[in-house]
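Worked example 2:
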Amino acid sequence: MPAMSAGGPDREDSILAVDIGGTKLAAALVSVTGTILAFREVPTPSSDDGPDRLTAALAALTADLAAEGAPAKAAIAAAGPLDCMRGLISPVNIPAWRDFDVVSCVSDAAGGLPTTLVGDAIAAAAGEAWTGAAAGSRALLGIVVSTGVGGGLVLNGTPYLGPTGNAGHFGHIPVGPAGPDAPLCGCGARGCIEATASGPAILSFAHQQGWQGKDLPALAHAAVEGSTIALLAFDRAAEALAIGITAANVLCDLDTVVVGGGVSAVGDVLLTPLRAKVAQRTKLSFTRKTRIVQASLGRRSGLIGAASFALTSQADEFAAVAAVAGTR
């Protein structure tokens, strides 16, 4: 446990966490018990302005939070693809950054702090497992349903990254034949979960069926009011998610599935058919214990999860491998 000051957890025992997204850059000081002590957020500069403005914004945000206290480590959550061994990211939603050395950028801006990189969906899952809706879970699948569909695994209480840090790409599990009639995914393949269950995919399907509304909250309201098209759109998304959850459950013996991201804000409109479809597909006895819950940490889950990963021995091992490779 960290030392406690009169005002709460000591910021000198904190982790400087950074969350990189296509629309916002966020940073926080997170205590060793998962409490956010200080928080900043700025819009992500447009990739049209080139990488330099993006890099300057990230460095300024990092330096600002580092000045709030004396954090012991830094941790980054970012969209992929990424290379945790070399500290590089190439976020699909930030095209100006390709093989960007984000670890060096953050570490330098934070005064040379040891810095860890983890995928944003894995970080979100880790955050929910630490202080959120799945606190105490030993085998967790976290799903982020938003403009895309991401995922992260926490197994035996530890985030699972895989050799490169890209494990958990739940949205790119195929859920049907990959023929020319299957929906096209942003990754270039056909039939991925993301191509059916992301926010844009749900809206697109509803519009193709003749629905005239503008956005997802309106579609969710229409579903509550009994709209056949709206109910079908969420049912279709729930079916794709259920196929992926069932597969992950059989493989990993999960105790909890946490559903987060902007689309999860529709609540039971999505979760009720999702739970029903997973139950229909769940036949093996050991998979029946798994609960499906809505995420509770909101937009700050990635920050909290990145900090939690930085406190693990696995993070130290990644840093050690990178150092031996001569990349840091």
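Residues 228-252 form the longest helix (25 residues). The CA atoms of residues 139 and 155 lie 5 Å apart.
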